[in-house]
Design goal:
This protein has two helices and no strands. With 70 residues, it is mostly helical.
């Protein structure tokens, strides 16, 4: 694990299971990257096109409002 120590093997290596696990891991990483990209694009759209102030309120909350994040 991270080159610090070795974990014992639990049974014989299964190449088919390893390959399918790699495929699933790769697909999920691409899905996660796409969701992250859509989130960033949506935030930029609200900020640059809609200009509704949502991004500014999240990044720089007003301190004069009771109950606002400190």
């Amino acid at each position: 694990v991270l080159g610090w120590f070795d974990l014992p093997r639990i049974g014989d290596p299964d190449r088919a299971l390893h390959r399918s696990s790699e495929d699933i891991h790769s697909a999920l990483s691409h899905v996660f990257a796409a969701i992250l990209l859509l989130h960033i694009v949506g935030a930029l759209k609200r900020s640059l096109i809609d200009r509704d102030g949502t991004l500014g309120r999240m990044l720089w909350p007003r301190r004069d409002v009771p109950g606002a994040a400190a």
